[in-house]
Write a structure and sequence with these properties.
This protein is mainly α. It is built from twelve helices and no strands. The protein has one domain. Helices cover 79% and strands 0% of the residues. Helix 1 runs parallel beside helix 11 and helix 9 packs across helix 10.
């Protein structure tokens, strides 16, 4: 049987391969004209809108950090919001720039267990639930936006399927929450509200990026793709979601008539969102020194 260390190495290697293949596919799929249009969109991007997008992205992370700290309080772990935010950004840095290690979530569990004597099982539960509650809200908003956007063409008027999935998401989540995360039940509704704050902040961030690159309409469609790509990027198949989000954006534009195959705009949007994420995550490198 393979050792835990070997499993981590193989898992990381597989994620790197998947990310590399996805990036190779993206480059291979683009025509020279599309590559030129992407570079032009990036060069002409309006810095004012990008700064606002950067601020909204980080507001979403602050709200997400507060949500995680509420879960920590359910297991009698008392952290100041300022310290928890530093630890949260450190986790972002590890997730994006140090994929070969234990990852951001793993480091937070290790650090808090070592320094606060909080049981590992409870810390893992809080971390998983934080991710899960965010994914539920993300999925709900993606379904709602899909109903507003052009998905009706794909479903041949069967939008009731999307509505049913959206309505069922929270009751199903409550059943799972009550079954496996009962210690955190007091924060169920507040965490969902903060989850909406996180995702709506990121949607506004996405809108500002689209304004920065002067996207020609189809904002609801782009935001639907953005939410779907965010769900895919969260799945643990790639390094920090690299390649996964871009793949969804590239392949997704063909499903929306209003986007008219605007591949360059979709790729420029995805690249700028990644850069905003990367720059924000770099703040964690400073906190790494401070926490040590």
């Amino acid at each position: 049987m393979a050792s835990p260390r070997l499993k981590k190495i193989l898992s990381t290697a597989l994620k790197m391969i998947i990310s590399a293949v996805a990036i190779w596919y993206l480059i291979w799929s683009l025509t020279p004209e599309q590559e030129r249009d992407i570079f032009q969109a990036l060069e002409k991007a309006h810095w004012g809108w990008l700064i606002l997008a950067f601020l909204l992205f980080n507001i979403s992370k602050i709200i997400s950090s507060i949500r995680l700290n509420k879960y920590f309080q359910c297991i009698s772990l008392k952290l100041s919001e300022a310290f928890n935010l530093k630890l949260y950004y450190l986790g972002m840095f590890y997730n994006l720039f140090l994929p070969g290690g234990i990852g951001g979530d793993g480091y937070k569990v290790y650090y808090l267990n070592r320094n606060y004597d909080t049981p590992v099982k409870k810390l893992i539960s809080a971390t998983i639930l934080d991710r899960l509650s965010g994914a539920v809200v993300l999925g709900f908003l993606a379904l709602i936006l899909a109903m507003i956007a052009g998905m009706d063409q794909i479903l041949s008027g069967q939008n009731w399927i999307l509505a049913l999935l959206a309505l069922a998401s929270f009751p199903i989540f409550w059943v799972v929450h009550n079954r496996f995360f009962k210690d955190f039940n007091p924060e169920f509704f507040r965490a969902l509200i903060m989850g909406f704050g996180v995702q709506l902040s990121q949607l506004v961030c996405a809108a500002f990026i689209l304004m920065a690159i002067n996207a020609r309409g189809g904002y609801f469609d782009y935001m639907t793709l953005f939410l779907v790509s965010s769900v895919v990027a969260v799945l643990p198949f790639t390094i920090g979601g690299i390649g996964a989000r871009e793949f969804v954006m590239l392949e997704g534009v063909v499903f929306f008539a209003s986007l008219n195959g605007q591949v360059a705009t979709a790729m420029a949007f995805s690249i700028l969102f990644f850069l905003i994420t990367a720059v924000s995550s770099l703040l964690g490198s400073y906190f790494s020194v401070k926490l040590k």
